[in-house]
Amino acid sequence: MTTLRVALLHLRVGVMNDLQYRVNFALQVLQSILAVGVGLIVFQLVFSHTTNLNGWTHSELLAILGVQSVMAGVVHAVIQPNMMRLSEEVQDGKLDHALTKPVDAQMLISVRQVQLWQAVDIPIGAVIIGFALARLGGNVGVLDALAFAVALVFGAVLLYCFWLVLATGSFWIVRMWFLPELFEGIFQTGRFPVGIYPDWLRFGITFLVPIAFAITVPAEAVTSRLDWQTLLFAAVFTVVAFAFSRWFWRFGLRHYTGASA
Amino acid sequence: MTVTPATQELRKESRLRSLADFYVTTMRTEIQTQFQYRAATYMYLLGMVAEPIIYLVVWSTIADSSGGEVNGLTAGDFAAYYIVWTLVRTMNIVFTPYGWEWRIRNGELSGQLLRPLHPIHYDVAQFAGGKIPWLFYYLPIAVILTLVFEPTFDVRPAEIAVFAIAIWGAYLIRTFNQTALGLVCFWTTRVGALFSLYIVLELLLSGRLVPLTLMPDWVQTLAWFLPFRWTFYFPIETLVGDLTNAELLAGLGMQLFWTLVGIAMFSLVWRFAIRRYTAVGN
Lengths: 261, 282
What we know:
The complex is a heterodimer.
Chain A: H1 2-19, H2 22-47, H3 58-92, H4 96-99, H5 105-111, H6 121-136, H7 142-168, H8 179-187, H9 199-208, H10 211-222, H11 228-253
Chain B: H1 5-36, H2 38-65, E1 69-70, E2 73-74, H3 75-92, H4 97-105, H5 108-114, H6 119-149, H7 157-182, H8 192-205, H9 217-224, H10 233-240, H11 245-273
């Protein structure tokens, strides 16, 4: 309980800190709209040459774009800033400050940094999803909506686990400046259903980088394509990944030798 | 002291020679530096390669599902296009406006201004030097992509020769465009939105997103009047397309033109920008 309270408090401070910089909000909205705009233009180009992409229609792909945008918001607002800070502190030997606090260290290093304005991708994504559903016309059942919500949570947790494992790598490989570039590149694969990629790549963006679970599966849920086996599998995989990343984080910690004063 | 024309000539010559020396040394240093951080560079390149693979997979899927070709391009053609894309991209990665933002905000620029040469020389030389190790890193990636995606190539020696020059043209054009954009940081240190806009224009008008022939006609026409297409589409097409010798030479000419425009633009903005620079401490 205390752990949760501390986490919420940290997040609140982070939010308040960012609220001071209002101009950044406008700039971020502009950047998000540009990013989404490119996505829409790509779809326009694709569907000027074909009527469906590997069984997905234009509207269904819009739903994927929406989910990708929501997940991008989550990653950029909360996950990535914390993990990059972790990596930098390992490099500078400043992690001691977090480790000596009397709460769970993994929780603490996961909530210290918030980039609030990056979260504008979440409402933008939601609007796109809504638009896609309106165009699809079919009714989203209660079960579909529930599956969608659950799948989103699994996806977010999996992306967190992935980032934690990478950032924990800083205990061995000190220079990790390439992480955002690497992630951003791979994350863009999520703008299309994973089914279109060749097997080796599909395997990679399902199990090594959980793009399939984070984006395609929720999009399948909201477009009524998801079967319950896939969702169950996502649940099991999330639990396993979370346990593994926690173990790996602790394993990495043993390699940490502080260097601060 | 009076300066005779002869000594003036001498000074100019030694200045050029020392500039050349400077370039060689900086490039050599950067080559050695880049060879040190192999893992990091590889990861960076992997992130970069994801972008064309997405485009490639999407367009091959469409080609396969619509009778083997889109606008006359087969899956093999797309593979060739995007594999050459990765090489061109490796070569045209330059110092970004974010670099300028960091440099100015941290006062890093103060030290660079004290040196006897214009800071732009350091950037051009450093990134040019970095390209050589990057090419080494890139080779295995190219081999793997070729094996996996089976491109169809039909290349003439003249095309290879022009390509070897054109990738440096693309490098220079992007360098000066992005540096000119980076100089905006002298007025505001939030260049992100502006840079995003630049990248969007580049994606759509350079052939970075799709071969320009897949774009609507008016976009293709517009692209002719802008520098972007000479940084992606032209170098790629030298190897992938069927350009005549005249077209190849004309392309190089356009690259030269846009490089000069870039230098002129950069020099002009620099003159106004540098007056605004103030730094504290350091």
